[in-house]
Amino acid sequence: MNFQTLLIFQLAADIALFVGFVLLFILITREVRNKPPVIDQETAVQLKQMLDDSHAAAAELARTVEESRRSLKELALALDQKESRLRELLEKADALRSNPEKRPGAEDALMDPRYREVLRMVREGLDTGEISRLSGLTEGEVLLVSDLYK
């Protein structure tokens, strides 16, 4: 056998192999087109479970968001009430500061029993944090009441 014969034999084998691959590709393509995709039962069950889990997680997220929104509204309302009360106290303090001769005694000026209790605790020597914890008022309110009526 010479080199030309081997080259021709190799070329013929390559062409035959190429034609075989093309025919195989055509047959596989036809087969895939004729068959609809099939999902087995186990995969379907897994997909349904994942979908159910997703719905449950979305519902829990929505519930948590709604609960957080309600908590924030309640907090905003409480802050607005405290701000209003502090404004009232500041207005009273400004009025008392502008007319020192009309300034009543601390006990007379404090209408709220909680503020009277704060003054009593200040006189006993309790610190601001302790008074705040015992009275349920913020430390800022305790300081304001204490400073206004010293």
Can you put this structure into words, describing what you see?
The chain is an all-alpha fold. About 85% of the residues lie in helices and about 0% in strands. Helix 5 crosses helix 6. The radius of gyration is 43 Å and the shape is rod-shaped.
Q: Brief description of this entry?
A:
The protein is mainly alpha-helical and 150 residues long.
Write the layout of secondary structure elements.
Blueprint: H1 3-34, H2 41-98, H3 106-109, H4 113-124, H5 128-135, H6 139-148
Write out key terms for the chains shown.
single chain; 83% helix; 6 helices; mainly alpha; 150 residues
- What is the helix tally? 6
Q: How does the major sheet shape up?
A: none
Give the helix/strand class.
mainly alpha
Please report the distance between the alpha carbons of the first and last residues.
Answer: 122 Å
Element-level helix/strand string: HHHHHH
The number of distinct β-strands equals: 0
Query: What overall form do the CA principal axes indicate?
Result: rod-shaped
